[in-house]
Amino acid sequence: MLLKRLLLGIAGVGLGIGLMASSALAANLRVLAWDGYADADWVKDFTAETGIGVDVVFIGSDDEIWAKIKGSEGQDFDVFAVNTAQLQRYIKADLVTPIDLSKLPNQKDTLPRFRDITKVSGDTKDGKVYGIPFCFDSIGLIYDTDKVKPAPTSMSVLWDPAYKGKVLAYDNGEHNFSFTALTLGYKDPFNLSAEQMAAVKAKLVELKGNVLSFYTTADEAQQIYQNNYVALIWANYGQQQVKALQKIGAHVAYINPSEGALAWLDNWVISKGVRDKDAAEKWIDFMLSKKVSGALSERTGFGNTVVESSSAGGNDKLVWLNNVEDPTKRSDLWNEIKAAP
């Protein structure tokens, strides 16, 4: 009987330890993020600083984020990263929770263009803040410094007859219509009238005469650059492309055009199913630290919202990506442009 009681006691202790471990695991902050947004050393430092454990799941597309958050109605993750062009979709579906800025002391030290979140399109709704800007990159222009002189200041250089057959362009109708609309001086490149759409189409047909090739991936663009005489690249992948080309010895530089550069902006967002909102806000505040933000730009080439980086200077005009008036129409028109003689 004594032995039985002893064994039951040991089993009880073991069960208690197991339950505590399970409870501790369950209490971990659940983060859904792009690769490079939650590196292991940052997670380790966050846990050391706050005592909060973190479980990270990495994603590879906007569609995957939506599937995971919508699929569980926001219950499987506490905090996730999403861009401003997508965030309103989550707000409309009631999948995110407003954020208390008073819990984010580091947000007060962000760069001026990100400090007043009410001026960042897509991050607020009905006076409530749902997204905290974390990192971005512009979609600018790469030019070969040996072949392009003087240094360009506008995307209009892509149409210069001097560079006929020396331009690399990105194979995407949605973005191409938007950047060309900016080049033509249209105020809202994401909502074009029928007349504006026709003018942009004609301009893109004209651009095609200067294009050596269209690319879809950064690696493809780099390979074409290495094997051909390329002077200008419409850089859909921004600073990542610059870093990769410079790494192979290319003499290239990068500008954000004076008429405005398209840019994406990723935010930290708190899920509707957050288990510990205070822990989620501590995570966001930690990610806005100068140490993390500086390291992010150094490691990925992306711009961050805290420390100035090469992605954009303080006076550069950035036009944050937004939903367009008719994605299907833009795609159809783009296919017509590519098929044109």
Tell me what the structure shows.
It contains twelve helices and 15 strands. The longest helix is centred in the N-terminal third of the chain and has 25 residues, at 2-26. The termini are far apart. Strands 1, 2, 3, 4, 7, 13, 14 and 15 form an eight-stranded mixed sheet that branches. It is an alpha/beta fold and 341 residues long.
Shape: globular
Q: Nearest-angstrom radius of gyration?
A: 24 Å
Oligomeric state of the chains in view:
single chain
- Number of helices in the DSSP assignment: 12
- Order of helices and strands, N to C? HEHEHEHEHEEEEEHHEHEHEEHHEEH
Low-confidence stretches: 1-26
Biggest sheet record: 8 strands, mixed
Which structural class should the secondary elements be placed in? alpha/beta
The averaged pLDDT comes out at: 91
- Distance between the ends: 94 Å
Helix content: 40-55%
User: What is the percentage of strand-forming residues?
Assistant: 15-25%
How many strands in all?
Answer: 15
